[in-house]
Write a structure and sequence with these properties.
The chain is an alpha+beta fold. The chain is 30% helix and 22% strand. The strands form three sheets. It has a three-stranded antiparallel β-sheet with strand order 4-3-5, with no helix packed on it. A two-stranded antiparallel ribbon has the order 1-2. β1 and β2 form a beta hairpin. α2 crosses α3. The longest helix is centred in the middle third of the chain and has 11 residues.
């Protein structure tokens, strides 16, 4: 036989009740001071719930990005300084990227894509 966690009275079947934010097992008289907590139905087979796998998207720079950049710049008859001004970066950075001395970043690649209409940055889905 259990006892009421509120008044201490002996009770055969205590009632789960939430009183002032605390869940207690109480007698019928004490249950009126709070809200009776109903048992949640149990899920028998948790494996029957299917979860959708999220595919991660990762951005990469295409392998021939420096060559594509240089070819497009020359096709438009632009000098490195002209492109640098359009992108608001230093001319030397354009030179270093075109000669593969510095790797092109995703952020700058996206900026170049936007300005020149190229696809130097590709988005891949990964499982």
């Amino acid at each position: 036989m259990a006892s009421c966690e509120s008044c201490g009275k002996k009770v055969e079947n205590p009632i789960k009740c939430k009183i002032e934010g605390v869940e207690l097992k109480v007698c019928k008289e004490c249950s009126k001071f709070g809200e009776i907590v109903r048992n949640k139905p149990k899920i028998d087979n948790f494996n029957s719930i299917k979860f959708k796998k999220r595919r991660k998207k990762e951005k990469i720079i295409v392998a021939n990005a420096p060559e594509l950049l240089k070819a497009e710049r020359e096709r438009r008859k632009m000098r490195q300084i002209d492109l640098a001004k359009m992108l608001q970066i230093k001319e030397s950075l354009i030179h270093h990227i075109e000669t593969r001395e510095i790797a092109l970043t995703i952020q700058l690649g996206e900026k170049i894509d936007e300005v020149l209409g190229l696809e130097l940055v590709k988005e891949l889905e990964i499982d």
